[in-house]
Amino acid sequence: MPPLDHAAAPAPATTPALRQIRQLPGPFALPIIGNAMQVRLPRIHRDVEGWVRRYGPFMRAWFGRTLVLVVADSEAVAAVLRDRPDGFRRPLSSYIVSEEMGGNPGVFLAEGSEWRNQRRMVMAGMAPGAIKAYFPALVTVAQRLQRRWQDAAMQGQAIALDGDLKRYTVDIIAGLAFGSEVNTLESGEDVIQRHLDAILPAVARRSLSMLPYWRYVKLPVDRRLDRDVAALDVAVAQLVRQARERMEQDPARRVRPPNLLEAMIAAADEPGSGVNDRAVAGNVLTMLLAGEDTTANTISWIIYLLQRHPHSLAKAREEVRRLAPDVAQFSVAQMDSLDYLGACASEAMRLKPVAPYIPLEALRDTVVGDVAVPAGSMLWCVMRHDSVSDAHFPDAQAFQPERWLADSSEVNNKRAAMPFGGGLRTCPGRYLALLEIKIAMAMLLGSFDIAGVDTPDGGEAQELMGFVMSPIGLSMRLARPQ
Hints:
Elements: E1 19-20, H1 44-55, E2 58-63, E3 66-71, H2 74-82, E4 88-89, H3 92-100, H4 106-109, H5 112-126, H6 128-133, H7 135-155, E5 159-160, H8 161-178, H9 184-187, H10 191-196, H11 199-207, H12 220-249, H13 252-255, H14 260-268, H15 277-308, H16 310-323, H17 332-337, H18 339-351, E6 357-362, E7 366-368, E8 371-373, E9 378-382, H19 430-447, E10 449-454, E11 463-465, E12 469-471, E13 475-479
């Protein structure tokens, strides 16, 4: 009997062996300090992006004694973000640092059931319907900014974009979220504005520190931070107290809360809500901190990029002056119609995302790409790699808003750009942020001609990484339209 021909039999299916984090390529690491001396905190995002270009989209790095999986593949990053909050969380170190600073982290750093309870409250207040009801107040703040910039244009003064745009966003957030009239644009900085800028950079700095020295000795910068936190605690407690007084005087506000703070208080007072006044206060601070820097920095980048691309600037200006020429008459429908301006915002966020990386911690054994990730592993998700790659966006380094328009003939992988994160933990303030951006930019382009946008050294705008990424020292010169 002839032997059976086993060559024709199908081979048994095999599962490719998973790579281990330690086996991945990466920069040479020193004992104890790892790769810490190879990165600079103010530009750590750029340093890690440089590593990715050299070692690939799955690589390892050592932050001190902590082994980190760096992930820059957009599909893998999106899968990780979709697996929150059950599979991944923000690093425990960030939560601990926030707790040490004396505040509740709010929905931004909360996890598990605590996050779910708070998320329901915040999402209700950030829903498009709630934002649209508040739209007239957004226009009022934009008119304040218009008057401030008219004065600067008449006097030939340069405008510091960072300061003015942060005042704009703080005035909007304070009114929407807390029902309190805060007018930093016309009356100068108040106590909240004065202390905000110290908090998130401190969380970022301490979260990345190899040695928690502040637990043993306080430097002058730490003592200043303590004073900033204490002052904000007092200011937030006053906001909560004023809101409770309004609700006691008018019980109807408890049934139909007119702002986010009163909605959170009403929810916290419900039996079994899982939310208390500490969580309410934490989310007050979260709204202020997250809403101030992110939107203000994005508007700054849009202005900078448009000024450097006159053709795009002219198209955006023409659209605004044709569809929404008068700030006093702005409507939601007008803002929705500004498609090219919206494309400019999307393109700016692709090139200059305010969150160019997201650090996470694995809550269970899992797999990312083809890499085994044990529970407790640290991940560094690089958000700006595929979004500036020619494999995903033709001529990816160029500022081309047209690629975001519906009639674009280019094939762009728009999913590779995730400026608001992804999954269940997509930024709850996305709609508000986009509306703030359109209102501010429509006011600017409809009311002024941009005479120039300057950097401190006259060169390219430089990126500074704190808790979010911002341009360094941009100033703008305006002229009244011809």
